[in-house]
Amino acid sequence: LHALREEARRSNEEEMQSGNGRERGEDDPEWQITQDMQFLLRVACTTALYPLEYAKTLIQIGYEPIAPRPGRTLFGERRLMLPNVFQYAAYIKSVDGFFGCFRGLSARLVGNFLSSYYGGVVADRLGYSEPRIRKGNARLSHDDDRQLLKVQFVMNLKRNLVVHSTGIVISQPFYVISIRMMAQFVGRERIYTGLVASIKEIWKTEGVAGFFSGLIPRLVCDLGCVLIGSTLTYLLSATIVEGESSRNNLNTLSHFTVSSLLYPYHVVSTCMIVNGSRLKAGNLPMMENYVNWKDCYAKLRATNEHKRGSSLFFRAVPKAITKASNIFAPYPEMK
Q: Which PROSITE patterns does the record match to this protein (predicted)?
């Protein structure tokens, strides 16, 4: 095991460094082009899908401006059905126009850039470099393959936990601004009109703590997905699944399954970001005043609203809704 670990680290150093000690990417034009293309692709995808993210955010905070209609679920059950995410996005466009569907995008892009860049930088500074195991022509024995798989799992898990936790903490202030810019749609406010104005508003009304609203449930959701998903992938790969391609597919499936189970914490994070602000969307009667994120989770779960937005197409009205719940909001005032 020690020999395999040393081989993994040595291979990683050889891949990451050139003869003069600098990172390989600095002198490799193809590597640099690949990194630039990946970054541009992420920006393009985030921008193109942002109207759907906008609609999903409003769904998560419980704003439903379009009344439900009788319909059937995916399994044929008769229920009152809410509009899908595309119909919701079309409604936003009908109210605010095309460019109104991208409110908060600038803050989201800044947060994503800082998260992706500094997450990797901090992990590298702490010595958690991304493992790049050199593959030889000779096949490893069954025991050596399992040991090497364990080494890769531990190294990847440590790095991913550092990268994700650092990225979330650094990007949280911009994530808060982005969510609140979108939540203004509910009350038609113009409080968060830009990055500078939003920073001044949060600093003036809530202080430093306001920039990190909803941080804990977001960390629980993201880090829980990394930890549980990676561990599940490793255990199944070490006992059942063989082959690199099958293991990659298993990794995708595991993380998707775990993220679905932890999705309620994503809803809680979004609600806590808006709750208590000066926006109508975060105060009565649109939203209860939650004591903390645990109180928010408990109340949403009690009314079966802790998975709002998890289904983007077949959206049925929750069965268990208390009389005090106000899921259906009035249409926004036109100004």
A: SOLCAR
Distances (CA, A) of 327 to 51, 189, 291, 313: 21, 20, 20, 18
pLDDT tens profile 245-296:
777 788 888 889 999 999 999 999 999 999 989 999 999 999 999 999 999 9
Task: Provide the pLDDT for residue 252.
Answer: 86
Enumerate the β-bridge partners of residue 34.
none
Closest to 179 in 3D by CA, of 171, 285, 332: 171
Residue with tokens 């600093």: 203
User: Tokens representing 161?
Assistant: 């936990």
State the greatest distance between any 2 C-alpha atoms of the chain, in Å, as a whole number: 71
Burial (CB count <10 Å: 0-12, 13-18, 19+), residue 37: exposed
pLDDT in tens, 297-324: 999 999 999 999 998 888 989 875 444 4
**Radius of gyration of the CA atoms of the chain, in A:** 23
Rounded CA separation 176/212 (Å): 7
Nearest to 59 by CA among 323, 280, 315: 315
Residue 82, phi then psi, degrees to nearest 5: -90, 160
DSSP conformational letter for 307: T
Q: Contact 57/266 with Cβ under 8 angstroms?
A: no
